[in-house]
Amino acid sequence: MTKTTETSPTQTFVRFTLIQRLEHITFLLSFSLLGFTGLPQKYPVSPISLALFNAFGGVENLRMIHHISAIVMLIISLAHVIELLYSLIVTRTPISMIPWINDIQHVINDVLYYLGFRKHKAYYGRYSYAEKAEYLALIWGTVVMALTGFMMWNPITTVRMLPGEAIPAAKAAHGGEAVLAVLAIIIWHFYHVHLKTFNKSMFTGKLNREEMEHEHPAELAAIDAGKQRAPISAGELRKRQLIFAPFALVSIAVFAFGIYYLVGYETTALTTLPTGETAPVFAPLPTATPLPPTATVPAPTAAAVPVALTWDTSISALFQQKCAACHGAMALAGIDFTSYAGAIKGGLNGPIIVPNDAANSNLIQKQEAGNHPGQLSADEIAQIKAWIDAGAPEK
Ligand code: HEC
After folding, report:
1. Which atom of ligand 1 is nearest to the CA of 375?
2. Which of 95-104, 272-281, 357-366 is predicted with the least confidence, judged by mean pLDDT?
3. How many CB atoms lie within 10 A of CB 242?
4. Ligand 1 atom at shortest distance from the alpha carbon of 366
5. What CA–CA distance (Å, rounded) separates 41 from 39?
6. Can you tell me the distance from the alpha carbon of 182 to that of 189, in angstroms, rounded to the nearest whole number?
7. pLDDT digit string (tens) for 76-129?
8. Which of 137, 230, 311, 357 is the 20 to 30 A CA-CA neighbour of 49?
9. What is the C-alpha to C-alpha distance for residues 386 and 377, in angstroms, rounded to an integer?
């Protein structure tokens, strides 16, 4: 190659191999699917989640797609580990993704640049500190998600080794890390590779000279100065590949067995009711059958005395069971049914209970209109009405 072609502006530089690009696109797809099927499980009452539950054909399908995407992501992660070891052991490519002293200098340089004390940004090599940070965050995130995901997928196996608290802890970590990862991609990743400059190299595999000058000037300078590693001889490469192959095969076999085990070992999904189920959800306990006349002990008279209908005796429990999921800690519409004071106070639009006047109580009107996300049965509505008309007593 002559000097002129070498510095022509149309000259391109290989940035990502085909394998790396395939890894990226598979990761992208499984990541997106995991997000779309995972976040609705974390925020089940949001209208967006409801739309996603419907779009994926119900919660069981959604969970299945979540699990399949997780397995795809595990496979791609293993492929990446094998690829990494291949570059370390076989091609012996220098490690370029691990943060180094000069990255700290680059950060200081860039902070000074943004504050106006420097005229230019740092001269990045093959990967900038921002790219390295994102890569390491992805590895860390994948490890956390895989471990906590495994714990929720196989809770029985998990509690043989860890205390039971580990399961809700895993759930909290899994959901929190998911939100963090999705936000990092939307805010940080999209900004850096799509908004700041539209960097297509992850799809085309190439960068041109101008892009290299902007984004990886130190790497470009090294290439221009001819400071590239001498290629390995074909014989030497072959020899190393032969050493590597059995090792890679064993890892793949162990991993494949692990996945097989993971998928089939525990069935933890709850069988959800088929849609259209009309069985009453609230089934009051049958009233105690009176003792047979031959009994020597007289039937307890307490049972015959009607229990006063108050917040404390039964109303509180009904709201707790039917309404508190949304109108409790979450206080949708500003309503909190977990305390008497909260129920009486009402919501964002004022009181919902008018003591002694059930017909004019917003709560009753809403419930009688039907179709509320939390709907009481006719019997239960009648019970609440009777309570309100009796003055909605607490005790
Ligand atoms: C799945 C979640 C969910 C459950 C369960 C639920 N609600 Fe609601 N509720 C909402 C939402 C969302 C709103 C606000 C939108 C609306 O008015 O429909 C609301 C609003 C209300 C309002 C109207 C407030 C206003 O200002 O008009 C009342 C009253 C109410 N709920 C009572 C109940 C009662 C009583 C129960 C239990 C039987 C219940 N809700 C269960 C989600 C729920």
Report:
1. 38
2. 272-281
3. 10
4. 29
5. 5
6. 10
7. 999 999 999 998 888 888 888 888 899 999 999 999 999 999 998 898 888 889
8. 137
9. 14
The pair of structure tokens assigned to 4 is 């002129």
Res 297 pLDDT > 70: no
Whose Cα sits closest to atom 20 in ligand 1?
333
CA-angle at 205, arms to 201 and 209, nearest 5°: 65
Task: From the CA of 323, give the closest atom in ligand 1.
Answer: 37
Tokens, residue 274: 């088929």
Residue from 95, 78, 76, 79 nearest 87 by CA: 95
Taken as a whole, the chain contains a residue count of: 395
Going by C-alpha positions, the residue among 32, 45, 71, 113 that lies closest to residue 333 is 45
Mutate to test the pocket of ligand 1, among 327, 345, 348, 388 (most ligand atoms within 8 A of CB): 327
| Minimum CA distance residue for ligand 1 atom 25 | 349
Ligand 1 binding site (Cβ under 6 Å of any ligand atom): 45, 322-323, 325-327, 332-333, 335, 347-349, 352, 362-363, 366-367, 372-374, 376
Cα 269 to ligand 1 centroid, rounded to whole Å:
29
Please state, in angstroms and as integers, the Cα–Cα distance from residue 343 to each residue in 123, 313, 322, 352, 386, following that order: 63, 15, 14, 8, 16
User: What gap in Å lies between CA 209 and CA 138, rounded to an integer?
Assistant: 28
**Bigger pLDDT: 37 or 309?**
37
User: How far, in Å, CA of 121 to CA of 148, rounded?
Assistant: 39
Determine the pLDDT at residue 77. 93
Q: Tokens in use for 236? A: 């030497």
Taking the centre of ligand 1 as the mean of its atom positions, its distance from the CA of residue 391, in whole angstroms, is: 22
Separation of alpha carbons 195 and 193, rounded Å: 6
Matching residue, tokens 């998911």: 178
- 373 CA to centre of own chain: 25
Torsion over CA: 347, 351, 354, 359 (sign)? negative
Q: Name the one residue in this structure whose structure tokens are 């895989």.
A: 146
pLDDT tens digits for 179-219? 999 999 999 888 888 887 788 888 888 888 888 888 888 88
In ligand 1, the atom with minimum distance to the C-alpha of 367 is: 35
Number of other CB atoms surrounding residue 351 within 10 Å: 14
